[in-house]
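call fold target=4-hydroxy-tetrahydrodipicolinate reductase
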Amino acid sequence: MTDEQEKTAAEPIRVGVLGARGRMGLEVCKAVDAATDMDLVAMVDQGDWLFNASDAGAEVVVDFTTPDVVMDNLHWCIDQGISAVVGTTGFTEQRLDRVRGWLERKPGVGVVIAPNFGIGAVLMMQFAARAARHFESVEIVEQHHPRKLDAPSGTATHTARLIAQARAEAGLGPVPDATKDEVAGARGADIDGVRVHAVRATGLVAHQEVLFGTVGETLTIRHDSYDRASFMPGVLLAVRAVRNRPGLTIGLDALLD
Ligand SMILES: NC(=O)C1=CN([C@@H]2O[C@H](COP(=O)(O)OP(=O)(O)OC[C@H]3O[C@@H](n4cnc5c(N)ncnc54)[C@H](O)[C@@H]3O)[C@@H](O)[C@H]2O)C=CC1
Ligand SMILES: O=C(O)C1=N[C@H](C(=O)O)C[C@H](O)C1
């Protein structure tokens, strides 16, 4: 066992939470606090000083903030040599490339960015990617609480990209659709050729259906998060893994294998 491995085995991981007063942040603070192998050393929200996290000796920062601040937070963490677990949405390919660039200059730092930390949601995306090449039609319906700031969800966008990639690899053409949009938006957003519909309603938390169709049959793959506690096993898994995964990891898939 190396010195670093011994340290990892013996000492609790010092964790800071950004967005600590938000819906997810509060849940993460609770989960980290309850984990015997972690110490919650900093809770940072809007208006607080990011240096609270480094001053407190955070080794891993968990970010559940907003798409407009997450890049600055992440750049700061990487500069400070702090590994990060990020659930905040809004990561385009361009943003991911910028993160890779920052990480090149800090080779020891790990970052895990996951569009969804729910284990069931990760499996739903994997099943959807697997089914994609067998069906000529596919649409995604995501459903969330009405205080969600972005649409479509990060999960739906990621799922659409996975499906589009699987369809391209299988040589499938465009999804058949003769409909002319009489009202803008009636057919949802188009993400890499996959239609995505976003529903917002009080009472919902986070839900997604992927509907596949081919001649004579349909297949619906559905996932429901009824409580934000559903994301915590995935968040804690990433916190435990991130320091041993230098560079950028996207999604939880590699951590679950
Ligand atoms: N990957 C996943 O599994 C999940 C991702 N999310 C995503 O996480 C993000 C947060 O979601 P919620 O907790 O529902 O939102 P929220 O609005 O309840 O929480 C965001 C928090 O970030 C704080 N904040 C804003 N700017 C900040 C800054 N510069 N530094 C520190 N804190 C700052 C806000 O004051 C607020 O307390 C969203 O992008 C959402 O889509 C949400 C659930 C699961
Ligand atoms: O804002 C949310 O609530 C959620 N955001 C993530 C997303 O946009 O996919 C994950 C989950 O759907 C909950």
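return ok
The chain has a mean pLDDT of 96. Residues 18-19, 21-25, 44-46, 64-67, 69, 87-89, 114-117, 154, 231 surround NAI (ligand 1) (CB under 6 Å).
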